[in-house]
């Protein structure tokens, strides 16, 4: 079947088109602290995708505020949390990073389309199995095989044992399971604990600020300062007047100096402007003098050459011409210099330098005078403002003195100063909080990355079917648990990673896979690759088919429950389950006698009878929701249907037979009763059970009752109903009439 990859991918993409994309983080709600000091969040009755990471954060999410990584374990629909170190008060909600359905399906379709050489997956797609005799040995022999086993037959234990032995033999093993309740542990990080302590300290400071704000309610510090100002006004009035007079005198002197400096600058600018032409001629004369010096140096060199060399040498004639030209230039420059100095007369070079220095000095004097005047004016206006403020505030009254004394008695100014000191550090505290929160986030991401990387390394790698894990290197052996209710497309991807051996364990009697929405169920590729299990694809749908198929090993001896539960399971389709006889499971029928049971009272009875793991299995979602509402405060009780109930098995199981005879849910009934280990309660009406047809779940219960294997107890004898709430007096209506009552009774 060369085309099965594309058909399976199209089946996945048909569902992918209807899956809503979700964000990276999902809020599960507020956690609550149990009596044992543990933290927990109740997700019973909710569809929770596999969880990769858990953070405790505020209402806006892990990226807004502190986000503390937490240990977590999903057990019985309750997420139990472990929080090492102090927890900031604003981290009151549980946020999880999940395996998003849209991304998971998209990855599955992509991997199926790009699947290369995968002989075992091709073999499974063709429905061809290798011969299987013994379930354990099948894990060590090359090829593809199925192993069917009913509930409690030790499939998971056998997989774990085989995986360990294969790893010791040097094989690399992938174990794929349906359940995804692996614990999440971010590990111990000393730095993270220190950061949590610092964040807790910052929160303490913020709480202190809130307390100080409450203590200062009604206190107006500005009014207190105004009173203090008025009290001091009388003492300051005389000194301010003297200070103002001195400031005015200094300002007047500075103003006079500024005027003199301005006059001096005007005179210097006029002298500089009037001498512009003469200074230009002097500058030209200086430039010509520099040229004259250059010409004179050149003439001296030529003269020395003509005198010191022999009389007839090459170039003598050119040197004589150059000397004559230099003499001519020297004479011309002398004449020009004399002309420039004549035009600049009577101004000399020293006079020009004096004019420029005088202008610079005038500018400096003006700048200094301007600064002095500005400072004097500023001081004058400051004193003037203080005097104006003093006059506007006025002097203290008797009421001001009483208010001042009361504030000092209560130390309100000191409390205000303490609050302002804390507020003064507010920017630093806010910045530090941001740095700590960002560092805490980074540490959480690092722990998440390390946990994700190390979780898929080693000889034995464990992954859930929902994660659709694909390794870079193929595995020697792939063992798939719960393949009896898994999608064929998921199992094909897992089997494709096997290089030598693939063994699929499962129970096809369990409820099969589902697809959303229901409208795509009729698509041929969806029916073939999504709604079909590996057992059904290979033609195995009954225990007889499993025993007759050469490629399927069968496990019939179960080790979880006793003969009574085994009889119920065999009567609902398993037929071949056997037991060792050493396990005794009590089966009790709680007879409701046709009345509606009080779920809350039954939940209290279950908790009192068995303080270990407990589960309630309802026939449908509606009754499961009613049970869940009754046991919401009892986290140790798992609630659901046979398909949705979390976990594998429980010490005590109660199966609700009221409101539904399970006739349309025979497989679900078999799954429900086999989830028990010690005690099985069947809640139902005895009369309805007696009249149930043979072959139905209720008929099987009745047959077991007739054999004396089921203890029948009245529900009102074992369950104490909740006390009836007293009716308020306002709800009691009394009608008074004027008619005479018969039989000597009072009318009313």
UniProtKB/TrEMBL annotation:
Q: This protein is called what?
A: AAA+ ATPase domain-containing protein
Q: Which organism is it from?
A: Prauserella endophytica
Q: Which Pfam families match?
A: AAA_11 (PF13086)
Q: Is-annotated flag, keyword DNA repair? A: no
For this UniProt record, give its keywords in alphabetical order, as a comma-separated list: Coiled coil
The AAA+ ATPase domain covers which part of the protein?
Answer: 141-525
Coiled coil region boundaries = 195-271
The upper taxonomy is: Bacteria, Bacillati, Actinomycetota, Actinomycetes, Pseudonocardiales
Q: Which SUPFAM superfamilies match?
A: P-loop containing nucleoside triphosphate hydrolases
């Amino acid at each position: 079947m060369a085309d099965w990859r594309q058909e399976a991918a199209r089946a996945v993409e048909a569902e992918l088109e209807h899956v809503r994309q979700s964000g990276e983080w999902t809020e599960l709600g507020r956690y609550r602290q149990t009596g044992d000091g543990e933290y927990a969040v109740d997700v019973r009755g909710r569809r929770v995708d596999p969880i990769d990471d858990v953070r405790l954060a505020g209402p806006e999410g892990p990226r807004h505020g502190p986000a503390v990584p937490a240990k977590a374990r999903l057990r019985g629909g309750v997420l139990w949390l472990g929080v090492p170190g102090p927890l900031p008060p604003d981290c009151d909600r549980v946020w999880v990073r999940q395996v998003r359905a849209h991304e998971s399906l998209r990855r599955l379709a992509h991997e199926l389309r790009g699947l290369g050489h995968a002989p075992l997956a091709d073999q499974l797609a063709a429905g061809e199995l290798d011969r299987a005799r013994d379930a354990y040995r099948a894990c060590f022999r090359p090829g593809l095989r199925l192993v069917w086993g009913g509930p409690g037959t030790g499939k998971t234990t056998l997989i774990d044992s085989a995986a360990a032995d294969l790893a010791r033999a040097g094989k690399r093993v992938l174990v794929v399971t349906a359940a995804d309740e692996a614990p999440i542990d971010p590990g111990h990080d000393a730095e993270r604990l220190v950061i949590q302590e610092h964040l807790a300290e910052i929160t303490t400071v913020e709480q202190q600020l809130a307390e100080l704000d409450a203590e200062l309610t009604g206190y107006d510090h500005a009014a207190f300062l105004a009173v203090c100002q008025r009290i001091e006004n009388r003492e300051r009035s005389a000194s301010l007047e003297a200070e103002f007079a001195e400031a005015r005198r200094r300002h007047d002197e500075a103003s006079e100096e500024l005027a003199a400096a301005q006059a001096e600058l005007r005179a210097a600018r006029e002298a500089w402007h009037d001498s512009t032409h003469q200074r230009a001629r002097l500058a030209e004369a200086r430039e010509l003098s520099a040229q004259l010096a250059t010409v004179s140096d050149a003439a001296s060199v030529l003269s020395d050459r003509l005198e010191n060399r022999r009389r007839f040498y090459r170039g003598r004639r050119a040197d004589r011409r150059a000397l004559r030209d230099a003499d001519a230039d020297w004479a011309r420059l002398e004449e020009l210099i004399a002309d420039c100095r004549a035009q600049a007369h009577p101004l000399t070079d020293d006079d020009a330098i004096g004019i420029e220095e005088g202008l610079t000095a005038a500018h400096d004097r003006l700048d200094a005078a301007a600064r002095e005047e500005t400072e004097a004016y500023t001081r004058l206006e400051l004193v003037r403002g203080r005097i104006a403020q003093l006059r506007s505030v006025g002097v203290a009254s008797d009421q001001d003195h009483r208010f001042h004394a009361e504030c000092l008695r209560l130390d309100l100014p000191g409390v205000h100063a303490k609050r302002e000191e804390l507020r003064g550090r507010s920017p630093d505290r806010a910045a530090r909080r941001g740095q700590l929160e960002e560092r805490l986030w980074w540490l959480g991401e690092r722990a998440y990355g390390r946990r994700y990387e190390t979780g898929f390394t080693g000889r034995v790698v464990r992954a859930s079917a929902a994660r659709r894990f694909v390794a870079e290197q193929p595995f020697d052996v792939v063992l798939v648990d719960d393949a009896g209710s898994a999608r064929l497309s998921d199992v094909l991807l897992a089997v494709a990673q096997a290089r030598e051996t693939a063994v699929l364990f499962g129970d096809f009697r369990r409820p099969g896979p589902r697809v959303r929405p229901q409208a795509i169920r009729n698509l041929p590729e969806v029916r073939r690759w999504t709604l079909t299990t590996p057992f059904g694809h290979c033609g195995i749908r009954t225990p007889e088919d499993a025993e007759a198929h050469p490629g399927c090993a069968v496990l019939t001896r179960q080790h979880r429950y006793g003969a009574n539960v085994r009889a119920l399971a065999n009567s609902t389709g398993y037929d071949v389950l056997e037991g060792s006889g050493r396990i005794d499971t009590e089966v009790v029928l709680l007879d409701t006698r046709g009345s509606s049971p009080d779920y809350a009272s039954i939940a209290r009875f279950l908790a009192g009878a068995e303080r270990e793991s407990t589960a309630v299995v309802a026939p449908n979602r509606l009754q499961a929701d009613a049970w869940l509402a009754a046991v919401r405060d009892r986290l140790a009780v798992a609630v659901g249907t046979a398909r949705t109930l979390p976990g594998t098995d429980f010490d005590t199981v109660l199966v609700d037979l009221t409101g539904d005879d399970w006739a349309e849910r025979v497989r679900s009934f078999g799954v429900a009763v086999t989830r028990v280990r010690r005690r099985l309660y069947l809640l139902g009406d005895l009369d309805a059970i007696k009249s149930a047809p043979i072959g139905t779940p209720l008929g099987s219960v009745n047959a077991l009752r007739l054999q004396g294997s089921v203890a029948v107890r009245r529900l009102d004898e074992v369950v104490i109903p909740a006390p009836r709430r007293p009716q308020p007096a306002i709800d009691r209506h009394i009608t008074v009439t004027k008619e005479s009552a018969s039989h000597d009774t009072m009318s009313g």
